[in-house]
Amino acid sequence: MAIQNIYFVPHPPIIMKEIGGRDVDHAKDTVIAYHKIAKMIAEDRPKTIIFVSPHGLSFDNGTCFYDETYLRGDFEMFGSPEITFHKSIDQEMTKCLESLMEQNDFTSILMTNELVKNYNRSLKLDHGVMVPMYFIDQYYIDYEVVHLTPGGTSLLENYKIGMLVRKITDQFDDCVIVCSGDLSHALKSSGPYAFHKDGPVFDQVMRDSVEKQDVEMLLTLEDSFVENAAQCGLRSFLIGFGALDGYTYKSSLYSYEGPFGVGYMIASLMPVEKTDSFYKTFEGKRDQLFEQRLSEESLYVTLARLTIAHYLKSRRTLKREMFKEIVLSSEFYHYSAEEVELFLEALSHERKGSFVSIHKNHHLRGCMGTIEPALNDLYDEIAYNAIIASTEDPRFNEINPCELKDLEISVDVLMAKEAVEDLDAFDVNRYGMIVEKGRKRGLLLPNLDSVTTVKEQYRICLDKAGIYMDQGVKLYRFEVIRHK
């Protein structure tokens, strides 16, 4: 294969002596490891280095490639304008990569000076590539550059992009991939972000994925966990892992430290020989779980799931006839035409509130609903709440279509609420809770794994309602029929 080696590196300008000064000594393990891998790259003498940087100009919904003959950059924003880089772009490889991504239905953009002027920006090398260049160029400068910036696309998509990178590089002369990214920025309260307990955990997972050669643990990370870690390297590293899909490889972790509250890791992946594709195995497992989930779901959940999938694709609601047609024609559902007709008929005669709860890998991904009926019937109520749970829950980003296979969905149909005097009237497994004070109102569904006491249920309801003094709060309880 044309890829000689893949390197995972951080990009803090503070480890450059001209910028960091004496602070460089606090990250000496990183600096030593950087010089080590820079010498290794010099020994490889690649014609092209593919730099994957999270800090290039980008669009959230796609992958961006810099497409100019030459690019320059400097460290002016870090107080050292005299440190400059001028690099030739391997435009042939760049255009081939972008074209292959388009052929495989990945959104990609060729970034030119003319294009970025429309956004009042200029096309320059960013510190995500210049920090690695600072060390590499001390030993080797005779290379061209491919500059790739991941968008905010799914983790699995970035792994698959790595697979496409390898497919293209097989057609070219020797190259090296440098995946640039820092780990958690939330390791210390004195760091750039407030400390978060998920920060150190994320960094350990990242190190384990290299040492144990286990990329699956990265692909199944929860969005909230990744966000709490405040990192910028995960998608870059997944592209690196993806570039070796179908190969055995030797992995080496050269250094890890977090002296300034940010995790710095330097590692390498060195291809050995061809083997079975991890991606095919991973997708096969996902498909089996998905098919099993579909076959076991109630029609209420099927309605929610198909509505979400249809809306994310078309931005339209799912009509009843189309719902019926999909269910009856699918090999995964085993309902008769009579069962579907009876289900739709029953919903058309009911007006009730409902909630649609969405989980991914057993973690909440979205939950929205109506306490009392707001639409014509229960079909419309469930469909509407499925759409807003997947696209408008303010706690989460909109669900990406590539996540659909991993979603676990439940639908709660709410019974009429009843006023109660105090918390003694509640049982967290049987009754949901509503609190009201003036115009403020908060609700919590019953029988949630994370809520075990009535006091906890009450506190969460108050928090959701924004009620900070509970004097004069009205209490209501309700039961639900939960469909899974």
UniProtKB/TrEMBL annotation:
Pfam families given in the database record: AMMECR1 (PF01871), LigB (PF02900)
Family annotation (InterPro entries): AMMECR1, AMMECR1_dom_sf, AMMECR1_domain, AMMECR1_N, AmmeMemoSam_A, Xdiol_dOase_suB
CDD domains from the UniProt entry: ED_3B_N_AMMECR1
Source organism superkingdom: Bacteria
TM ranges: none
SUPFAM superfamilies: AMMECR1-like (SSF143447), LigB-like (SSF53213)
Domain AMMECR1: 295-484
Protein name per UniProt: AmmeMemoRadiSam system protein A
Source organism of the structure: Fusibacter ferrireducens
